Amino acid sequence: MTNPPVILTRDLTKSYGAATAVRALNLSVQKNRITAFLGQNGAGKSTTIKMLLGMVRPTCGDADVLGKRISNAKENCELRRRVAHVAENEPLYSYMTVEQTIAFASSFYPDWQPDHAGKLLSQYRLLPRQKVKTLSKGMRTKLALLLAFARRPDLLILDEPSEGLDPVGIEDLLQTLVAKAADGASIFFSSHQIAEVERIADQVCILHHGCLLMNASLDQLRQSYRRINLSFASAPAQQDLRITGVEKIRTEGRRISIFASQNADAVIARARDLNAVSVDVAPVALREIFLETVREN
Amino acid sequence: MLWYKSWLETRSRFFTCLAVLVVFSALFIHHAQGFLHPEWKTEFNRLLFIAHEYVVVLWILSVVLLGMGGLRRENAAGTSSLTLSLPVGRAHLLAVRFAVGVLEAITLGVVPWMTIFVVADLGGMPVQFPQIVFYASLLVGGGLAYFALAILVSSLVEGEYTAPAVAFGPLFLATIIFDTWLRRFDLWRLVTASFFVDRTTYLLSGPFPWLAILASLCVAALMLLASVRIVQSRDF
Question: From CA B224, how far away is CA B99, in angstroms rounded?
């Protein structure tokens, strides 16, 4: 029996007047996996996360998080007890000190681990009596991460969590996320740092103009996406190479570059039928998949 | 811990307002040293009545300042995501903020009058404790509607300083309208004790207006309920 998804959205939509931030989103995030949520600025990632946590009311559609309906205020409150959230720009109360912030946050969660919080406090070199308003951006990020990582939540929702961190901080963050996932937590995080995503994510979702363009496992993407560079004595028409799986074709003189999401073997066979002089097949990095997918749409 | 957060959020404003009210009350009554003669007792009572009007003005300014904040302001400051990700309902958040504000408002109403009593008593002035209690009770009991109005406005208006500025608009307008056409229901006259002062002795007389205070508290409760509905329906 498969585990129910930790996040399941059904035609989730959010409009602000004439502008639609999220459009009929049908997203499924599996349990015990690290799911990356990619998209350009304004793609609707933060709005989606805010809808999941009850901060923004969907215009239509609904969603379940950890089996609780987000549109039901009581259930949403219950789900927030089991979710650790790090919001974009790490909002923290500037009038509190680090220790006041920790004491405040810890009081709401029965899964708070004071020992672990203490370890993270020294690991992140946060001074307990320092005012939050005097912290640098990186230190604020660390404090926001501490509030999430000092718990044992079922689901971690992180909105651009590496923002403001130095390379060491980013490395620590990635390792912590992997460790949390190994401990049984499900992780759903948005990021613009595709290299980080590629290192730790199991699943990748791409959102563009509020629409979900892709929801696939990283392994699946690595296996199916290919860049095929072909040389011809005389370049054939692009339509001769347009078969299922070919996402984009670029012709430069006698060279043709094909970006294929599947069926690479069939594309190669077609190229050979068209008397290709050389065929070069290369795996595609997530960065390229993201850019091509977003530009295509 | 929501109480603690609300307290940390408002304590500097609270202490500033408290200091202003206490210093004003103490200085005002200290200057009444000349009214020590028994034959000037009426003048002293009149002075208390005038002092009360000033205390009311300062108190209203203070509670409107204390009413600043809440989720709209947090949204502008960028911290609403942290507050709303807590496993607490929006009504609960507002209720705690209101409750902390009410406690602060009561303190701001009682302490200046205690100061007046102590300074007057130490100065040998003919101060009567029941009169002090009457004034303070009118201020706090009737005046909470002003605080509820500030909370309501802060649920509607986002800006940090816009909310109190906007709050004074309906406040002045309501005072003018009620004073002109609906004087019997004028909250300002209730809170400043104009309905109860005997113009010959300048003592507050008659029974305590429980019904009027109750009506004022009901208005405050309605404004609080409206604030809850507004906050619950908004996106942050």
Answer: 11
Q: What is the pLDDT of residues B65-108, one digit of tens each?
A: 999 888 988 998 889 999 999 999 999 999 999 999 999 999 99
* Cα–Cα distance measured from residue A267 to residue A287, given in angstroms and rounded to the nearest whole number: 22
| Amino acid letter, residue B19 | A
Distance CA B133, CA B91 (A): 33
For residue A155, the distance in angstroms to the closest alpha carbon of chain B comes to 13
pLDDT tens profile B184-232: 888 888 999 988 888 888 888 888 999 999 999 999 999 999 999 999 9
Of A149, A203, A205, A289, the residue nearest A12 (C-alpha): A205
A97 contacts A131 by C-beta, under 8 angstroms: yes
Mean pLDDT of A217-224: 92
**Half-sphere exposure of residue A238, counting CA atoms within 13 Å on the CB side?**
12
Rounded CA-CA distance B139/B60 in Å is 9
Hey, CA dihedral for A142, A147, A153, A155, is it positive or negative?
A: negative
Pairing of strands A68-69, A226-232: unpaired
CA A266, CA A237: separation in Å to the nearest integer? 17
Q: Which two tokens stand for residue A218?
A: 């990283």
Please report which confidence band the pLDDT of residue B168 belongs to, taking 50, 70 and 90 as the band edges: confident
Minimal CA–CA distance to A67: which of A76, A59, A58? A76
Looking at CA atoms only, how far is residue B88 from chain A in angstroms?
6
- Please list every residue in chain A whose beta carbon sits closer than 8 Å to the beta carbon of residue B87: 77-78, 80-81, 108-109
Count interface pairs A-B at CB distance under 8 A. 67
* pLDDT (mean) for A113-142: 95
Q: Angle at CA A51, nearest 5°, toward A50 and A56?
A: 80
For helices B90-122 and B210-233, give the axis angle rounded to 10 degrees: 140
Handedness of CA A289, A291, A294, A296 (dihedral sign): negative
Dist CA B149 CA B224 (whole Å) = 8
Provide the token pair at A86. 């790090």
- The model's pLDDT over A8-62, given as tens digits with 9 standing for 90+, comes to 999 999 999 999 999 999 999 999 999 999 999 999 999 999 999 999 999 999 9
B38 at A interface, C-beta within 8 A: no
Phi, then psi, of A72 in degrees rounded to 5: -95, 115
Q: What is the mean pLDDT of chain A?
A: 93
**d(CA A110, nearest CA chain B) in Å:** 11
DSSP annotation of A118: H
Interface of B with A in 167-226 (CB under 8 A): none
Note whether B16 contacts A: Cβ–Cβ < 8 A. no
For an interface test with B, the pick among A93, A98, A135 (most B C-beta atoms closer than 10 Å) comes out as A93
Question: Is the separation of the CB atoms in A267 and A223 below 8 Å?
Answer: no
Sign of CA dihedral A192, A206, A37, A47: positive
Residues whose CB is less than 8 angstroms from the CB of residue B140 and which lie 6 or more positions away in sequence, other chains included: B105, B106, B109, B110
